[in-house]
Amino acid sequence: MAAVARRVSIAAPALSLVLALAAAPGGETLSRSLVQYSFDDELATGPDTVAVFAKADGWVRLTPAFRFSGYRSVEIHDVAGDGRFPELQGYFALRKSGVLYVHFALMTADPFETFNLALAGPRWFRLEKDGIAFWLLSREGHLYQYSDSMPKKLIPLRPFVWYLIDLAYDIDAGKYDMTLREEGSAAPVLGLKEQINAPNQAGAAVDKFSFIGDTGEDTSGVTYYVDDVVISADRPMAQAPFVAPGRRKLFVDAWNEYEKLAGSRIVCLPAQELIDVGLTTEAAEELDRQGLLPLLEDLLEGSAADGATNPEGSGDTGRHLEAIARWNRGCAALASGRADRALRWFEEASGAVPEARVYPLSAALALARLGKFEEAQARMAALGRAWRSDPRFAVASAMIGVAAGDLDMAEASLRSPALETAETESSDAMRQRYFFVLLWKRWYQEAERFAAQVVDRLAEKGQTSSDWLERAGDACLLSGDHAAALSWYERSRKAGGSSSLLLTKLSDAHHLAGNLEKERECREAVYGSLREATGMW
Amino acid sequence: MNASRSSAFLVPVLLLACSTAAASDRRAAQQMEATDYGEQKLRALLFPSADLEAIRAQGRGVLAGLAKLYERSTEDEKAVIAWAFYTLGWKSAEAKRVLMADAHTPHEALRLQVQWALGRVSNDPDVVDVLVGNMRDDANPLFRDKAACALAHDQIHLTEEQKVRLYERLIQALSDPKPQVREIAIKVLGIQTGQTKGFNPGAPPAQREQRIREWQRWLEEYRSQLQL
């Protein structure tokens, strides 16, 4: 299954990004049911239903040839030596506690060919906590479970016999009860109690399932069938309704929320000049004489953080190096969410080298991270003169503004540097940040105009930017101007934009414009399709 | 260990970028010696930049040619070929034979590539043995760490019985007197099994011993499950 995770993380990073957010509870309906597929009706693929990966000779398709109930099941066929494996992957709302009930029907054509099925969490199909929780596999004619990190033989499998599997997974305990029945038989062929989950980890969360052939060895030629997948929780939970095929939230909304979450993260800004850490040219020359410039570089890059709380160097140079080391540690603490600890490191660095300007700026950021916005803003006001027009000061102000929910402040901080036509190393990052602040303020027309302005500016230099064309489309889509959004997105595609995210947003735009065929085409380019085979079986 | 792995993929590119004129001359001389047209063709697919897809397209038969070419190559070139073996991930007795000869080379780039590639070309017991040996006893901590990395991620052809053998050796390494070895051994076990059973490489010996006994009990159960 590790191979599954690897492939997913390579092939569809955007997909996991969307998945991470699309499952956020909307609170519209309360239900215990998380998944209920009989595969008789059309099932639209998407981030809240299933995805199909079948890029080689194998397939995942609906078939009327065999079914446990209704008139169709899913047929999964792997081909040995074709370089890939087919997969039916399904998604449901994240469950971190309580009991999860899972039921499905399974039938294999050849018990000596390998198949694997698993329930997993946010860490995908890795054998670790919040990765694979439950794992069944077939091998050499037998069904196995992977429990306590080892395969355990269960029963011999018979070809073309439906097996009904019922699972009650106690997430908190990391254990499950499992019953297996053969079709037509009331008595179970197997009843297991309190089985340790796959990685022996209590509290392993789950939010997805997967049915595949082999796990990457590329040796399986299995054909097997899955029907009646039902997953439910022990207590009702809020679930948003579907707003479009396969999704409870439009891709563009999920993506925008993700960007906002990422944009409100407070982290250190880099030290780029000697003055940032209070060093003069003379002091740097002294460091050079003492052979300490490499250490200074390491410290500024953060690569010497671990062993450098008391770095070498005498007198004034030692004071500076020690302060940089403390600032480094503060930055590491801030990045890992320990803002109180970070603040202490920054204050110490600042106390040791009061002439440095990046230390008090970082302290203001740490205060904002602690929710002390007024104090953070007061400190920023006092720092304004030292930073003058340095764009990092604008970025820091915007970070604090976004974190405080004060988008006006964020917008005002970024406006001037973002509209600056001169190019610097951080120009594009600054413009992106400004664009997003405009989106979050719901100033969609301004955001589109700004993106268009950047596109024009790039065109004047003979450059095209599929990213900025896409951003203009995003602004239009969020404003409800689907036709304009489609036009920008298509221009982005022509300019080379081909990401999964662009395709999903195009799918949104077609959906909102009422073009069902195109909506499906773009969505299925990312999530695959689950359809009945045409022609001869 | 994952971050180190990412940078490892860059090694061949960097090596090639750093090739000197002397290396080019040596390569030309070797080309003259190579009477086998297939070998020259293979060399062209590997140098100056490797076209793995073209090599893969030739099928598994290419492995014997690669192994032969490996033996005629400089160490920098061998590192590229070892990387090709790694990426192809196909079992090959010839590849294993030539790689094993360099399993203790002091040449850094070559050693890393060889250690990573071995488990992807063979599941023979001596591959795990040599990697565990490097993980525990190599004088260079980098080589120890990367041998552990290979044991964690790249033993892709092991059968369940062979996994038991690997786990047994890793559990033995939990008692190693070197703290770094204990640390990397539990990391490998953690990656392979998803659990650590609370083993702390820096804990007092009695506490470590208790956790090791838990690991041994687990291994016994694993072994007995395979006999069912």
Textual characterization of the structure:
Chain A has helices at 2-11, 13-22, 251-263, 281-289, 293-301, 315-335, 339-352, 358-369, 373-387, 391-403, 407-419, 427-440, 444-460, 466-479, 482-494, 500-513, 516-527; strands spanning 29-37, 50-53, 59-63, 73-77, 87-95, 99-108, 116-120, 132-139, 142-147, 150-156, 163-170, 175-182, 190-196, 206-212, 223-239. Chain A is of the alpha+beta class and 537 residues long. In chain A, the strands form two sheets. In chain A, strands 1, 3, 4, 6, 11, 12, 13 and 15 form an eight-stranded antiparallel β-sheet that branches. In chain A, strands 2-5-14-7-8-9-10 form a seven-stranded antiparallel β-sheet, with no helix packed on it. Chain B has 228 residues and is mostly helical. Chain B has a domain at 1-125. Chain B is 73% helix and 0% strand. Chain B is built from 14 helices and no strands. In chain B, helix 12 runs antiparallel to helix 13 (179-193) and helix 12 runs antiparallel to helix 14 (205-226). Chain B is elongated. Chain B starts with a helix and ends with a helix. Residues 1-35 of chain B have low confidence and may be disordered. Chain A binds chain B through residues 126-129, 131-132, 148-153, 198-201, 216-217, and chain B through 156, 160, 190, 192-195, 218, 221-222, 225, 228.
The CATH architecture term of the domain at 2-246 in chain A is Sandwich
Q: Which spans of chain B of ≥5 residues are poorly predicted at pLDDT below 50?
A: 1-35
- What is the H-and-E element order of chain B? HHHHHHHHHHHHHH
Q: How much of the sequence of chain B is in beta strands?
A: under 5%
